[in-house]
Amino acid sequence: MKNRFLIIAGPCVLEDLELTLYIANELKELLTKYDFEFVFKASFDKANRTSIFSYRGPGLEKGLAWLYEVKTQIGVPVTTDVHETWQVKPVAEVVDVIQIPAFLCRQTDLIVEAAKTGKVVNIKKGQFVSPWDMKYAVEKAKQFTSQEVWTTERGYTFGYRNLVVDFRGIPIMQRFSDKVIFDATHSVQLPGGGEGKSGGEREFIPYLMRASVAVGVDGIFMEVHPEPEKALCDGANSLPLSWLDPLLSQIRDLREVLKKHGLSSRNSTKSEEN
To answer: Are 127 and 97 in contact (CB under 8 A)?
Structure first.
């Protein structure tokens, strides 16, 4: 991947092809404007929904076909998550980055299978895992690939149905990750807090996003939707497309300030270790 600030964005789950292409195109235009690296993300199957009655997605075959359309028609890299080892091979034939879900970040066989594909692997930090312990998840992948291995911060369980972000985790994971991404939307999720589905506090997304950029994160993960209230998954903590332009402008400006003053958590981490 290019050495520019990375944005991983898209709807939580694939809903239909027309909507998928619309979101991908809107995102591409915005991110080109700000010269950020862009990877489109959407899930073909949400295997960890709270309720058996919740929408999970179009499934592997149709979902990969839609992601292929995004990749070829819109012309952007794509990523999706895998939940079982048998899914890895067909997914790797389409995507540029394989995502390991937070709940599965300790699943050795899944990480190893993803690493063996030769694709970039993005391991989301579990809500139950410390940033220090993500070193071992990265090591599992690094044993089987020369490609980059990323980690994604998405908050830590704080009592029942709540998450809290410890921003120390970003520079800590930068010691052993090729990139550290901040998941600005799942970090405001209220797991299981919506009576059979997860709730969320969307209004706090901009605050946490700005904080992560100030700390020196390598990229932002965000789930976006034109109408989050109508989204079939994670609407409560999804970012409306209409919010995105000013937020990207803020990210750009904050990064310019960091650059001007020579500040970044990667620089700080390296100087501390030396």
So the answer is: no
